[in-house]
Amino acid sequence: MTNLAALDLNLLIALESLLEEVSVGRAADRVALSQPAMSHALKRLRTLLGDPLLVRVGPQMQLTARGKALRYPLKDVLSRVRDLLISDKFDAASSTRTFRLFVSDYAGDLLLPPLLKRLQAEAPSVSIRVQLGGGNTLDPFEVGRAVDVAIACAPNCFKGFYQQRLFTDRDACAVRRGHPITSQIIGQEEFLKTKHVAVVGREFTEDPVDKWLRDEGHERNVALSVPHYLQALHVVAQSDLIAVIPERLIRAYASVFDLDAMAIPMDVGTFEEYLLHPATSHTDAGCMWFRGVLNDIAKSQGPLNSRQILKISNRQPLKKAALQTKRLRKTAL
Known about the structure:
Oligomer: single chain
Radius of gyration: 25 Å
Number of helices: 12
Shape: elongated
CATH class of the largest domain: Alpha Beta
Number of strands: 14
Strand order of the largest sheet: 4-3-5-13-6
Helix content: 40-55%
Order of helices and strands: HHHEEHEHEHEEEHEHEHEHEEEHEH
């Protein structure tokens, strides 16, 4: 059993640096030690833990299984120790802090404008560094190092993160105001035949909405593909094309682009967005304030509309599993 009274806290700081940098030289630079001193610390840690922690594989160093397993709990423990030694006060009005927000295009387009208005009123010197997500291949450990808060619809992809539901949304059909289609009750056939703008993210070859429809035996008329929702809304506002877009995003930009939201004549269900944060920022007073602001903004948007512009009486049910696959692409990190 390890004698905690004899444990040097500096060893844990060195271990954190070694596990994150996976290099003796870079770890030494990070904590302002000489390379020999860091090598000595690594030797002591190997003896203490009974594991080599870092091993050379070809020209590079790699973590052992034990080293990888230690990263999350060690980071959490040291974060709690640091919390004991720093003030827990945060004054938004005078703070000059920068918060790092990891978010999808969709959630960013929806939440950033009201967030900036809120900061201007309450925290004029606070800044936000936005990092856009795309795909589901990111290492949660790397995300935890790089951000204070993340927003995603696939919270289980980020093990070790605290999570809470932020809001619920669903797909709708974006059309320009005055579009001929708004004067009729549109059914499934008319919806599929009308020219669409597809949204194809940088990691895909087609809009997953189309794969989703094709799996159900349907195909829509795609006249244009763009990489982002806002580009699709720009096009819709100036043409007779329509687009499948989350309802809250259409509503947020309806007055800017002169748009309407129509119900899709199929059962599209709903999806949920989550607020996520790493354990390292859980008790940080500033991060707690920032998360509270994001929650307030989400609540201020209110519930989804109970009725949309067109009443659809012939919606066709679709498989929920296929719909979930489509939705994860649309808003995942």
